[in-house]
């Protein structure tokens, strides 16, 4: 819950903020690397961009890459300052994403200062990590999505049901299904931290109670442990800094959850059901994703610790969310989860503002980088939309990539639906042993569906997260049971239809968009080249080639 509603910001290859005008250059010792009309790109700006790129891409420093990065920065300055961008700057979705990025940047700094900065690794913890990193464990496990299912599996183990039999029931992966959930040997850092902590604390042959991981729940049985002998103090000291960093990283999520718990208890957020229903009815996600009557409801929709959140205030906040977030509000429960997140964000944002984190230079620098990224995203969409590609190129792309333009695969599957997992497991065992699946459906399924094997074919996407599993299921084989909401479903696939090439004329727009996406780099460069014809550009190559990367080797590959 806490990790889901904490709004945090992560990014890998941050690009620089749009270049400053000559009148607002940085320190006098910051050399000008390039001038683009009345704007400049300084060596400090380039250094930040280039170092981030080398670290993220893990490549060698060389003059070709240097020039390529600088030319990209020049193009960004051209596109931002010397082209017509009013349609982007006035785009409401662009403004929403920009505001969301600003708030998330401030909250990320809050998290860094109030959570991550306080994480330490003691010598005992580092030494324990060193020992674990030199020990291999062989284990098997049983997986369950919910605590209820995991407890049920644990009880079956206690009465003597084997790992092998239960693995056949819980796994769809053919390897784990047939080897009793055996994972082989692993060492520290290979698995989920909670899984590892449990496994390393167990004896050979011991079976754990259900262990909560980021994926669900696991019941672990340790099969073997192999410890590397003769660990030396010198070896420990050589690896201490790296191990300390890893230990701290593994603490991040738990520390984050504890910090959020100290700030807010989501369970204490109270909802006014009338106000919530009013907000949900105002949503028009299928049309414009705007509220039909934004800002008109004065009723309370939620409260926390004496603070009342009014309907029109919350509607305004939701309306400022980026489209991809609003699209997730497709039921009342999701709406409540979003409102909890907004209340948490409001609380954290007030804390950050009180501490002055919204005025810190590093926060502003990070936001400037994100502003550039966001602008380039919208600019690329605009340029590609308005660029014409020859029909001959589009048709050739269609023929060369025909497998990408197939009609949806279809599947015909019988379904047996029950509300008890144990019953589903038992029915599957009966079917595997030869019982007639049609008869089992007629006798036990909670939902009437055709059991004669002549049902209709449906697009495989209808089955959502199960589509690949069902498509890879052999015809006639029983798949499942799968928990879907509060039910357990068994499937028997009785027919499959592969996709066929779609008619070119009917999907020409789709093919054209695919071509533009593949050609986007060259199309954007061509567009920028046209702007260069009317803008004076000067590059100081002497500064570019003589630049020394601080703290990094320019001759060896970076890791």
List the defining traits of the structure above.
disordered C terminus, 559 residues, disordered N terminus, 14 strands, four-stranded antiparallel sheet, alpha+beta
Please characterize this protein's 3D structure.
The chain has 559 residues and is of the alpha+beta class. It contains 24 helices and 14 strands. A four-stranded antiparallel sheet has the order 4-3-6-5. The chain has a four-stranded antiparallel sheet with strand order 11-10-13-12. The N terminus and C terminus are likely disordered.
| Helix-and-strand structural type | alpha+beta
What fraction strand? 5-15%
Query: Per the principal axes of the C-alpha atoms, what is the gross shape?
Result: globular
Number of helical elements: 24
Helical content band: 40-55%
In terms of topology, how is this protein built?
Blueprint: H1 2-5, E1 32-36, E2 39-42, H2 43-57, H3 63-81, H4 86-89, H5 92-114, H6 123-133, E3 135-144, H7 147-158, H8 163-170, H9 174-178, E4 182-186, H10 193-200, E5 211-212, E6 217-227, H11 233-250, H12 252-263, E7 270-271, H13 273-282, E8 300-304, E9 307-310, H14 311-319, H15 323-326, H16 332-354, H17 361-386, H18 391-400, E10 410-418, H19 421-432, H20 437-444, E11 458-459, H21 467-471, E12 478-484, E13 487-497, H22 508-518, H23 520-532, E14 537-539, H24 541-546
Helix pairs in contact: 5-16, 5-17, 6-11, 13-14, 18-22
């Amino acid at each position: 819950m806490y990790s889901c509603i904490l709004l945090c910001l992560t990014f890998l290859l941050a690009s620089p903020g749009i270049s400053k005008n000559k009148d607002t250059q940085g320190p006098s010792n910051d050399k000008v690397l390039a001038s683009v009309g009345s704007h400049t790109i300084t060596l400090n700006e380039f250094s930040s961009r280039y170092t981030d790129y080398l670290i993220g891409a893990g490549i060698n420093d060389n003059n070709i890459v240097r020039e390529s990065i600088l030319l990209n920065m020049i193009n960004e300055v051209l596109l931002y300052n010397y082209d017509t961008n009013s349609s982007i700057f006035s785009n409401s979705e662009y403004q929403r994403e920009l505001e969301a990025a600003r708030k998330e940047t401030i909250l990320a700094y809050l998290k860094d200062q109030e959570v991550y900065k306080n994480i330490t690794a003691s010598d005992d913890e580092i030494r324990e990590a060193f020992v674990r990193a030199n020990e291999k464990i062989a284990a098997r496990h049983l997986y369950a999505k919910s605590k209820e299912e995991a407890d049920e599996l644990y009880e079956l183990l206690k009465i003597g049901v084997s790992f092998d039999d239960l693995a056949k029931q819980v796994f769809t992966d053919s390897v784990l299904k047939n080897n009793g959930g055996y994972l082989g040997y692993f060492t520290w850092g290979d698995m989920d931290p909670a899984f590892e902590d449990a496994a390393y604390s167990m004896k050979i042959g011991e079976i754990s109670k259900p262990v909560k991981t980021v994926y669900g729940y696991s019941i672990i049985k340790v099969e073997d442990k192999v410890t590397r002998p003769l660990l030396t103090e010198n070896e420990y000291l050589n690896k201490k800094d790296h191990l300390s960093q890893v230990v701290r990283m593994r603490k991040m999520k738990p520390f984050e959850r504890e910090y959020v718990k100290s700030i807010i208890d989501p369970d204490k957020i109270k909802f006014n059901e009338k106000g919530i229903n009013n907000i949900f009815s105002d949503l028009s996600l299928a049309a414009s994703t705007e509220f039909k009557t934004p800002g008109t409801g004065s009723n309370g929709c939620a409260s926390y610790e004496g603070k009342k959140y009014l309907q029109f205030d919350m509607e305004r906040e939701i309306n400022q969310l980026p489209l991809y977030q609003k699209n997730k509000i497709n039921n009342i429960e999701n709406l409540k989860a979003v409102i909890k997140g907004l209340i948490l964000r409001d609380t954290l944002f007030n804390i950050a503002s009180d501490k002055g984190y919204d005025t810190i230079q590093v926060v502003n620098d990070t936001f400037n980088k994100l502003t550039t990224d966001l602008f380039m995203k919208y600019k690329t969409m605009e340029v590609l939309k308005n660029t014409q590609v020859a029909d001959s190129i589009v048709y050739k792309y269609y023929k060369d990539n025909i497998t990408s333009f197939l009609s949806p695969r279809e599947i015909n599957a019988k379904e047996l639906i029950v509300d008890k997992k144990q019953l589903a497991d038992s029915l599957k065992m009966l079917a595997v042993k030869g019982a007639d699946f049609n008869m089992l459906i007629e006798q036990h399924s909670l939902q009437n569906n055709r059991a004669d094997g002549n049902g209709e074919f449906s697009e495989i996407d209808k089955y959502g997260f199960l589509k690949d599993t069902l498509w890879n299921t052999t015809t006639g084989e029983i798949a499942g049971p799968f928990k879907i909401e509060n039910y357990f479903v068994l499937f028997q696939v009785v027919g499959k239809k592969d996709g066929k090439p779609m008619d070119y004329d009917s999907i020409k727009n789709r093919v054209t968009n695919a071509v533009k996406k593949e050609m986007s780099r060259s199309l954007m460069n061509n567009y920028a080249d046209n702007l260069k014809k009317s803008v004076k550009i000067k590059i100081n190559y002497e500064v570019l080639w003589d630049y020394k990367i601080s703290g990094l080797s320019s001759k060896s590959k970076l890791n």
